[in-house]
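Q&A log
Question type: sequence-to-structure
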Amino acid sequence: MGSKNKLKRFRENETFPNVIQPERDDVLKGKFPYKGSWRKDFFKNKNPIVLELGCGKGEYTVHLAQRSPHINHIGIDIKGARFWRGAKTAIEEGYTNVCFIRMQVELIVQCFAEREVDEIWITFPDPQIKYKRTKHRLTQPDLLRIYKTVLKSGGLIHLKTDSEFLFGYTLGVVSQMGVIKYAHHDIYNNSDAPDIATEIQTFYENQFLEKKKAISYMNFTL
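Response status: OK
Response body:
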């Protein structure tokens, strides 16, 4: 993507009512306005809240919002030029139950109150295979502890990935920290896979499937 396109998307994001771009320092100082009041002050309803962490282009967030209009969906990513597409689509389609936040995933504890979130999705994250990048894996223990803080008791975390490495790594981590409710290394060749794991396919997921690459999925509680 060229720099002109990025700048154009950044400018458009600033005009979108469904995009929030807080300053990191403000978030760390406790100045995020919706913590503890997302339902009342932003969505203006009492519906459940589902996060997608590292949402990329926002495809999954938008599709989940379309599939479940009675649920509020929030996509989080540090790269606003990516989720611009999802935010724009949501506006064009008139989805009022979706928004996007431009920030680092680890800051969610500053932006959501304890147990304010009902579910979390992590879809096709970078597996960060090299040992030195362990801290950036979205299913590493320190981040899971952060997720647990904002999740309601028993709230599900979903992981969908094309990485056998990340799938195996997460199975190992969760076995020490929580309860695996469902896990399969190849959901499209498994008749027991939950519908919600197979009904939505992103652009890149379709490319993986065309190459006969297995897609893994699990859900678990902490």
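Response note: The first strand starts at residue 19 and ends at 20.
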